[in-house]
């Protein structure tokens, strides 16, 4: 609750300002929105004409309760990773000594869509397992060139879930979903799911994802999650995801270069993706901003950030991330964290448009419930006051409210970089009257 996400090991909490409506797209087990309380799904039933009508149950009879879903066994992290890859390969359509090539599209957190230390570790473990136990399988890097040669693609998500298998409430494990796609047919040919204990999982985002000022979900990324979590073997992977694979490979090369501190190389790669025929992806523009900031191109970085805000407000899919000092509602401001600039640009964009709404504060699940409620409110009020200070016209357009940890996305209650998304402030927009 009191720590924030940083660009280095000493970094504390991220707070998220979201100025967008819920992203429309294919629902997945990790993104579906449940029906409002008190509503039930409606099914159209038809019985043969000759069949007598079934007896009507008494009004007091209780409706049958569906049994809870059967979850995979809960395993230690090391064992869960080994089992997942063993099962995936055992169900694949190739056998030794047949030689095949496999590419891994980097695994992601099933909620935040970020690459983390654990997802990177899983890929390292896969490489080691293939080398020792499956020498006929050649693991190639996720590049555009490799996609043209490799017939199989591996994807995977790592998602914190509760005892009912849902990403809500008190999380007690991670669900590891792993799938293999035949790139010739674009169909899933193998899939497995295991559960890992929380203990050894380090879900800290990698540098690009830690330092990004904008968090957004894109159609291709949602297609990745759908292909892994909601698609069965024999079914086609999400078409939007498959269609953007070459662009995703170039984007990932830029992310790898940025994580390695090769900012000029990363900038060139991000600019290439942003100028591609498929359009300027938000993640590429985020990368451009980050590289320009690291290369001390501050005016260009300010313009890039403004473009991100403009794009998000137009699409209703933008999010601006802020850092607060531990246990306070005071924003930090560092060389690679120009939050005063972020606030001014965001306020200008909101004031120039017909935007009204609620500044909604949230907190992670660690700490006392009452303290979390109060802290989420204080941070929401602070963000609102800063926006109003930069653009007084917003004073009558926005209210502040705190929601504590009731809407936690990650929910692991670790209070560190891994559940930073839970410590956010959302800007919920609606049309001004």
The rough form would be described as globular
Specify the number of helices. Answer: 12
Detail the poorly predicted runs. Answer: 1-60
Mean pLDDT: 81
Evaluate the radius of gyration.
23 Å
Please provide a written account of the structure.
This protein is α/β, with parallel strands linked by helices and 433 residues long. The protein is built from twelve helices and twelve strands. It has helices at 77-90, 117-133, 144-149, 207-211, 219-229, 239-243, 245-259, 263-274, 282-294, 298-315, 339-352, 369-390, and strands at 13-18, 74-75, 100-104, 108-109, 137-140, 152-161, 173-182, 187-196, 319-324, 355-361, 398-402, 425-431. The strands form three sheets. Strands 2, 3, 4, 5, 6, 7 and 8 form a seven-stranded mixed β-sheet that branches. Helix 7 (245-259) packs antiparallel against helix 8 (263-274) and helix 7 (245-259) runs parallel beside helix 9 (282-294). The longest helix is centred in the C-terminal third of the chain and has 22 residues, at 369-390. The relative contact order is 0.16. Residues 1-60 have low confidence and may be disordered.
């Amino acid at each position: 609750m009191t720590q924030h996400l940083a660009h280095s090991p000493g970094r504390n909490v991220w707070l998220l300002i979201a100025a967008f409506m819920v992203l429309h797209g294919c629902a997945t087990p990790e993104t579906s929105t449940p029906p409002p309380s008190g509503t039930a799904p409606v099914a159209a039933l038809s019985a043969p004409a000759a069949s007598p009508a079934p007896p009507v149950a008494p009004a007091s009879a209780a409706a049958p309760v569906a049994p809870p879903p059967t979850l995979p066994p809960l395993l230690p992290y090391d064992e869960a990773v080994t089992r997942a890859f063993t099962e995936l390969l055992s169900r694949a359509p190739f056998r030794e000594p047949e030689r095949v090539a496999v590419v891994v599209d980097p695994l992601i957190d099933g909620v935040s869509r970020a690459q983390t230390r654990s997802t990177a570790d899983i890929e390292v473990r896969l490489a080691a397992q293939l080398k020792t136990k499956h020498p006929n399988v050649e693991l190639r890097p996720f590049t555009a060139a490799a996609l043209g040669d490799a017939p199989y693609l591996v994807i995977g998500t790592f998602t914190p879930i509760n005892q009912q298998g849902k990403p809500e409430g008190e999380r007690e494990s991670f669900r590891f979903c792993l799938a293999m796609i035949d790139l010739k047919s674009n169909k899933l040919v193998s899939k497995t799911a295991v559960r890992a204990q929380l203990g050894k999982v380090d879900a800290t985002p990698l540098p690009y994802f830690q330092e990004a000022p904008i968090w957004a979900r894109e159609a291709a990324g949602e297609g990745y999650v759908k292909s892994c979590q909601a698609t069965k073997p024999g079914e086609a992977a999400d078409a939007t995801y498959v269609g953007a694979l070459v662009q995703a490979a170039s984007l990932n090369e830029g992310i790898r270069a940025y994580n390695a501190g090769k900012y000029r190389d990363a900038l060139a790669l991000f600019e290439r993706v942003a100028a591609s025929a498929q359009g300027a992806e938000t993640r590429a523009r985020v990368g451009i901003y980050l590289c320009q900031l690291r290369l001390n191109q501050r005016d260009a970085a300010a313009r890039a950030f403004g473009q991100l805000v403009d794009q998000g407000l137009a699409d209703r899919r933008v999010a601006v991330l802020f850092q607060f000092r531990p246990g306070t509602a005071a924003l930090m401001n560092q060389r690679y964290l120009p939050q005063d600039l972020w606030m001014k640009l965001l306020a200008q964009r909101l004031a120039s448009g017909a935007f009204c709404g609620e500044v909604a504060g949230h907190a992670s699940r660690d700490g006392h419930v009452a303290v979390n409620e109060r802290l989420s409110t204080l941070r929401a009020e602070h963000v609102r006051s800063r926006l109003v200070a930069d653009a007084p016209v917003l004073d009558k357009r926005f209210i502040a409210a705190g929601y504590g940890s009731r809407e936690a996305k990650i929910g692991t209650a670790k209070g560190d970089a891994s559940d930073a998304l839970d410590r956010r402030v959302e800007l919920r927009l609606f049309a001004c009257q």
